[in-house]
Amino acid sequence: MRIDLHTHSRVSDGTQAPAELVRAAATAGLDVVAITDHDITAGWEEAAAAAEEVGIGLVRGIEVSTRFRGSGVHLLAYLPDPDDPRLVAELGRILDGREERVPAMLAQLRALGYDGATEEALAEVAGDTEATGRPHVADLLVRLGAVRDRNEAFVRFLSAGGPAYVDRYATDLTEMIRLVTDARGVPVIAHPWGRGSADVLDRDAFVVLQEAGLFGLEVDHLDHDPQQRGRLREIAGSLGLAVTGSSDHHGLGKTNHELGRETTRPDQLARIVARAAELGSPTTIVGRAL
Ligand SMILES: [Zn+2]
Ligand SMILES: [Zn+2]
């Protein structure tokens, strides 16, 4: 059984429509796929319909932008109630922050001499997404010929400290773990030791976060080398946290993140699904039984 628990559609910063993403997952030989767009559940319905159609299991989730001790941390929220009022309000706040951030980044780029960095040009690149963010600004820089690909755009302009970087609102991680659990979802930290969060997320931090409701760690992710995976697996094992693995697929938006490139063990997914049921979530796996 092949399970990929972290992918993006073009509802956030992937390049495939939710239905296309689900069909591609079936074609890639996956038995279960999770849709986890950034801070938004707008792709869930379309993805669920496609999953029923092709007979693949769909786990509905969100990758939430949070902050912990000054660093950005991504939190995967699996199977929460999408109508939980407090979760909806907080995701709205994060999305509003995103909306204010993008025009500010474009203004910085224009100040740097990239006159084509306008909101109209960005809208063309971003298509019909409701969650525009840095990856779309990166795509615009590619189109303007300023950089070769998204990666170069981040390295030269868009990463923290870069000339076009603008900070934005993110929920405190501990608070978001509580919010997700209250919304009867299952919180798992995405790529904990990728990007900037390795320094703040040590074993002691995981202990504290587990007390707040943290359920698992995404260990098998392209951002982690074999040594980091070994250490994270050891920590998760000693604390009784679930271990997941996923591609973090973005369609054509990121290279080397093909669907199914990293996978989650069926027993770990079963734990997540059982936890959501135990919390009384109205959301469960659809399309195919475990
Ligand atoms: Zn992420
Ligand atoms: Zn992601």
Verbal overview:
The protein has 290 residues and is an alpha/beta fold. Helices cover 42% and strands 14% of the residues. Strands 1, 2, 3, 4, 5, 6, 7 and 8 form an eight-stranded mixed sheet that branches. Helix 1 runs parallel beside helix 2 (44-54) and helix 5 crosses helix 6 (150-158). The longest helix is centred in the middle third of the chain and has 27 residues, at 85-111. The mean pLDDT is 95. The protein binds zinc ion (ZN) (2 copies). One zinc ion is lined by residues 63, 74, 190-191. One zinc ion (ZN) binds at residues 6, 8, 63, 248.
Features:
single chain; 290 residues; alpha/beta; 8-stranded mixed beta sheet; 10 helices; 8 strands; binds zinc ion
Helix-strand layout with pairing:
Elements: E1 3-4, H1 18-27, E2 32-35, H2 44-54, E3 57-68, E4 71-78, H3 85-111, H4 119-126, H5 134-143, H6 150-158, E5 171-172, H7 173-182, E6 186-189, H8 203-212, E7 216-220, H9 226-239, E8 242-245, H10 266-278
Parallel strand pairs: 1-2, 2-3, 3-5, 6-7, 7-8
Antiparallel strand pairs: 3-4, 4-6
Helix pairs in contact: 1-2, 4-5, 5-6
The chain binds zinc ion (2 copies).
One zinc ion binds at residues 63, 74, 190-191.
